[in-house]
Amino acid sequence: MKSYKLHVPEGFKDTYGNEMLIKKEIENRVLNCFNHYGYIHIKTPTLEYIDLYSDNGLQKPDLYNLINRQGEVLSLCNDMTRSIARFVGSNLDDSKGIKRYSYIADTFRYPRLYQGKNHQFLQAGVELIGKSNEYCDSEAIYLAYQALKACGVSKFTIHLGSSKFLNLLLDDFKVDSNTKKIISETIENKDYVTLRSILNNNLDSNKAEFIIDLMLKGGRLRYLDSLMDKLKGYKALEELKYLKNLYEILNELDVKDILFDFSIYAYAGYYTGILFQIYTENVKKSVITGGRADNLIKQFGKDLPDIGFGIDLDSLTDYVIENNLINVSKEKYLSLSDKESFIYSMKNNEEFRNKGIVVGDSHLDNIDDAKEYAKLNGYTKIIWYKNNKYEIVEVK
Description:
By secondary structure, the chain is of the alpha+beta class.
């Protein structure tokens, strides 16, 4: 029988050393950024009842499930937006006005095919609840922008789209609700071959090709203006005007590099308005995904609009390390002492630590072993204690 004692399950990994230090530094910077904008930090349970992640009795296929001793079906946290929606719905606070929540949490998702994908994701994010307008939307995007800047990231592109736009456009094109659902699912799966077939079977060739072009193309303000010219007289034009207004607000806030991208269909199916994704250079997946979900909290008993986003802290950490954007290294000394000097070394090492120097006690017996250990573990100097005195030895 195979033993799994030394193995990590598929889709999971250990994190340690410099990667862990940088990830913690990123967490601190992001959370500090959220705090400065008035967001209240919230911690929800890692386990929730599976009903939280079910729509109309249908459970999401990517859940990690288990059964407790009472026979109740639970799920590992799969979606922090839903967890916060559950918190808001069950909270007795009915005061009017904006509610702002921030979080850092592990989420768990089982991919349809493994293919080397992670099952556990460290995510930071916010939810701005209670208002639905371009000012709240711009705040969310601006905060995402500021969070990346706080982590030293300066080169990124914001992809801005809208689920509402596509819904209005399909209404303009007289597409029935069942076909709209199929089209949305096909776009979410990026299956454009099937999408073309569905569109050609339900629309004339010009309208079908227009939607295909929306999925395959994108662009800056000139691209949006060209779409607005083509859709004069359609209901979908109003959402394009909204996006242009949002763009102008962000531009005044010096948020640049915005691309209009209507192929965005994020992981969750509850988005009702704008969608945005932020990409850093040379990284295929987005490091931030967000959008407006005005109907979600209604499922939990309160009719409150919501705009939020999540940061993929694992991908962001990889990018920060690869580009040397954050330096968490400190000067490291190794302590070596004889038995008589142990108490003296322990007290004296605190003086070095108070100066910001990392001091590790070697508990070794001789200087040669200490030098070898220091080289292997990144110590630059050895504090060698003998007879309640010490000397500093360079590690070469």
